[in-house]
Amino acid sequence: MTPINMSSDTQTLPTEQMYDAMRSAPLGDDMLRADPTVNRLEELAAEKIGKEAALFVPSGTMGNLVSLMVHAKPGDEVIVDSESHVYYYEAGGIASVAGLMPRTVPSRGGRLDPEQVAAAVRKRDQHFPVPRVLCLENTHNRSGGRIVPVELQNRLAAVAHERGLAVHLDGARIFDAAIASGLPAAAFTEHVDSVMFCLSKGLSCPVGSIIAGTAAFIEQARLVRKRLGGAMRQAGILAACGIVALQTMIERLAEDHRRARRLAEEIATIPGLSVEMESVQTNMVYVDHTGTGLDTDELLARLATAGLLASDRAPTHFRLVANRHHGDAEIAEAVARIRRALATDDR
After folding, report:
1. Where do the domains of the chain lie?
2. DSSP E strand stretches across the chain
3. At what angle do helices 215-227 and 60-71 cross, to 10 degrees?
4. How many whole angstroms separate alpha carbon 190 and alpha carbon 171?
5. C-alpha to C-alpha distance for 284 and 301, rounded to whole angstroms
6. Strand ranges (DSSP E) for 125-199?
7. Alpha carbon of residue 193 to chain centroid
């Protein structure tokens, strides 16, 4: 039995067109800006995301860290959602590496309240760190891949800018937000100062992310990337995949969204499981397993035995993520394997 891996869209493999592009990519030394394939990727990425310039980095975590380190200096404050990826899942880099003080604001369904953000920006006082950056996230991972509406995001950016803060957008899955909203990705980046998006999730590249902003911002980001060990040499072999992704893989994200919705609808019919359907807006399905009486680890072990790999959202949920490797047949089989896993009662 071949496992169906729905633990994350980071599990995607390169397409055949990407393999072909890797084999034929012209290469050079990217640290010296002499890799033509990297240069082309950065130009294309900036165009797609509506910014002046872009920079290829090895990971989304590094992209966020570089961006925050350009916007702020050690001891400064970054305002973040308490459930954001940069605060929750990036190993404390904003504190341990960037030396920034996170000031958290709670969100509801991944959506920050502009009034609460405004209240979090304290007046300048020698007792407080200086607030420098508001970090947003769209789509919002821990709320189930929800989209932050562009109108709300713009209001949040305005609150920050009015108070002298820069705005960084963790847009790891920004193209999911754009496709699901029927808007160009640039609509979500128009009023932010910098953005990071991943190539290695639903876009199916093996490695890499992009940060984008003004030309001056990217010049500073190059220095910080080097400082963090992220400057690469013949990186065009990786960038070639990114070019293919931006040219061919964005529109098809709608298929992942449709299949995630179908998966959620079927799971909601299984006794002991429930899904908040309003949260299923892109390619993620967060499943509440409280009704099974199983803890998350036990349930994930049962699913793995049945041939379905999911990710942990303890204590009450597990996560499934649709990607290009999951057709309609795989979605149907995933539901069947969940049913079989829960039918096993060896307690």
Report:
1. 14-247, 252-343
2. 4-5, 53-57, 77-81, 101-105, 131-137, 166-170, 194-198, 209-213, 274-275, 284-288, 308-309, 311-313, 317-321
3. 110
4. 13
5. 20
6. 131-137, 166-170, 194-198
7. 18
- CATH architecture of structural domain 14-247: 3-Layer(aba) Sandwich (3.40)
Spell out the alpha helix ranges (H) of the chain: 16-24, 36-49, 60-71, 85-88, 93-96, 114-120, 150-162, 174-181, 186-189, 215-227, 236-248, 253-267, 296-305, 328-343
- State the first-to-last Cα distance of the chain, in angstroms, to the nearest integer: 24
Helix (H) or strand (E) holding 256: helix 253-267
Q: Which residue is listed with tokens 């999951």?
A: 326
Superfamily of 252-343 according to CATH:
Aspartate Aminotransferase, domain 1 (3.90.1150.10)
Amino acid identity, position 181: S
DSSP 140: B
Q: What amino acid occupies position 204?
A: S
**pLDDT tens, position by position, for the chain (347 residues)?**
899 999 999 999 999 999 999 999 999 999 999 999 999 999 999 999 999 999 999 999 999 999 999 999 999 999 999 999 999 999 999 999 999 999 999 999 999 999 999 999 999 999 999 999 999 999 999 999 999 999 999 999 999 999 999 999 999 999 999 999 999 999 999 999 999 999 999 999 999 999 999 999 999 999 999 999 999 999 999 999 999 999 999 999 999 999 999 999 999 999 999 999 999 999 999 999 999 999 999 999 999 999 999 999 999 999 999 999 999 999 999 999 999 999 965 54
